[in-house]
Amino acid sequence: MNVQTALANLALPVGTTLDRYIMQRQTAFPYATGELSQLLRDMALASKIINREINRAGLMDITGSAGSGNNVQGETQQKLDVVANIRFIRALKNGGEVCALISEEDEDIIHTGNDNAKYVVAIDPLDGSSNIDVNVSIGTIFSIYRRITPVGSKATLADFLQGGDQQVAAGYILYGSSTILVLTTGEGVSGFTYDNSLGEYILSHPNLRQPRAGQIFSCNDGNEADYPIPVQAYLRQCKQQRLTGRYIGSLVADFHRNLIKGGIYLYPQTARLPEGKLRLLYECYPMAFIAEQAGGRACNGEQRILAIAPTSLHQRSPLFIGSSDMINQLNGMSLNG
Ligand SMILES: O=P(O)(O)OC[C@H]1O[C@](O)(COP(=O)(O)O)[C@@H](O)[C@@H]1O
Ligand SMILES: [Mg+2]
Ligand SMILES: [Mg+2]
C-alpha cells in the first residue's frame, strides 16, 4: 500500500487529538521511528504554556520591553519574546529529539546537549511582537530539518543551511481569539484548535486548501512609496478592483486569514530594508512550505522562496505569499522593474 493510499485511509475525523493524528501519521511511514512525533509534541507542549502566559500577560508583568537591549536583528526585545524563547528552548532540550536550534532571539546556534538527536529546529518564538501589548493576535513559527551532520557530533551551520525544500515539517501557532496550531509534514496541511478545558489540540481544520484567489491584500501601506514600482502598480490594481486591505502586522495572523479566505500578503524590499524585513529560515521558509502544501504560492519576486539558497542564519528576504492566482498576477508584473 503506498503512502498516499495509507494517508487517504487515515482521513481522521474532526475531533481527533493532535497526539492521535501524529501517531496515525507515523504508522503511515514504515521508516518512522517516533522522534519527529515526539518533537512535535514537545513543540505543542511549549506552546500550551506560552498560550497561558499570553492570556495572562497583563497580570504577570510580562508585557513591555525586556530592557535587555536589542536582539541580533537590532530590534528591541519584548519580555514575551524572551519568555517564549526560553520556553521553546527548554522544551526542546528536555524533549531530547533536537540536537540544536536557531532562534530569532539568539545570534548563534543553540546546542541542546542532545548530540544523538536527529533533528534541528529554526524558530520565531513570538511573531508579531509589535502587537503583544495591545492584545492583537500573535504567533510562533517553526521549521524542522533532519540533521546532515553525523549523529553524536555537534550540529553545525550546514544543518541549518540545507534549503527550504529540505524541511521535513513546518508549522505555526496562532494565539488569537482561539489558539490554533497549523502543521505540515509534507502531506498537506491541517489545523488543530486548542481546547483549554481539555488541554489538548483537537483536529478542527483537516486538509486545509488555500483558495486560488481572494479579495484581500495585506501589506504595510505606510511603506508603499518605497516598494518596487511593479509592487506599487499591483497594489494600485488591487485598490482599483476594490479588493479589501487587511493588515494585522503579525505575519502568522495575516497569513492564516488569507489561508482560510484567500488573499495575498506582501512584505517587499524597501529603501530602509533592501533585503526585505522577514527572516528566511524561521519566517519565510516555514510559511512558504505551508502555503505550497495548501495549494498557495510564495516567492521573493524572482524565485520560489523554498528555492532560495540560504547563506546565513538570520538573512532576510522579500516575501510575497498567498493565493496562487494572485501571486501569478503579481509575478506577471515583472517584479524586477
Ligand atoms: O511593522 P511592520 O514593518 O509592518 O512589520 C510587521 C511584520 O514584522 C513582524 O512583526 C516580524 O516578526 P517578529 O515580530 O517576529 O519580529 C511580522 O510578524 C509582521 O508581519
Ligand atoms: Mg516574526
Ligand atoms: Mg519574533
Automatic annotation (TrEMBL):
One of its GO terms (molecular function) is fructose 1,6-bisphosphate 1-phosphatase activity. Substrate binds at residues 127-130, 220, 247, 265-267, 277. Binds 2 magnesium ions per subunit. It is found in: Cytoplasm. Its cofactor is Mg(2+). Mg(2+) 1 binds at residues 104, 124, 126. One of its GO terms (biological process) is fructose 1,6-bisphosphate metabolic process. It catalyses: beta-D-fructose 1,6-bisphosphate + H2O = beta-D-fructose 6-phosphate + phosphate. Pathway: Carbohydrate biosynthesis; Calvin cycle. Its EC number is 3.1.3.11. InterPro entries: FBPase_C_dom, FBPase_class-1, FBPase_N, FBPtase, Fructose_bisphosphatase_AS. Transmembrane segments: none annotated. GO terms for cellular component: cytosol. Residues 211-331 form the Fructose-1-6-bisphosphatase class 1 C-terminal domain. Homotetramer. NCBIfam families: PRK09293.1-1. Belongs to the FBPase class 1 family. This is Fructose-1,6-bisphosphatase class 1. It comes from Fibrella aquatilis.
